[in-house]
Design a protein that fits this description.
Elements lengths: L1 H10 L5 H13 L6 H5 L19 H10 L11
Helix pairs in contact: 1-2
Length: about 80
């Protein structure tokens, strides 16, 4: 929420450049994990950002190992 507010201050051309610069400085000091997409698209168990399934919210490595072990209900190895 704070990141979006600061972004709107930075893009507002009606504000003075000094105020926009201060907003830019404050935004750069925020944690990187405060981005809304990085919070939403994280693996629940490992915290990985990349290759997270939207269905299970698990990273592909964790999903693969747990499904092979049979720990995830509704998933099993394919046999053909």
């Amino acid at each position: 929420m704070k990141r979006q507010l600061l972004k709107s201050f930075i893009k507002n051309k009606k504000m003075s450049s000094a105020h926009r610069y201060v907003a830019l400085w404050h935004r750069s000091k925020l944690a990187r994990l405060s981005s809304s997409t990085q919070i939403q698209n994280r693996c629940v168990k490992t915290g990985r950002i990349w290759y997270v399934s939207k269905l299970t919210h698990y990273a592909r490595f964790f999903f693969r190992t747990e499904s092979y072990k049979g720990n995830l209900p509704g998933f099993k190895r394919a046999n053909w």
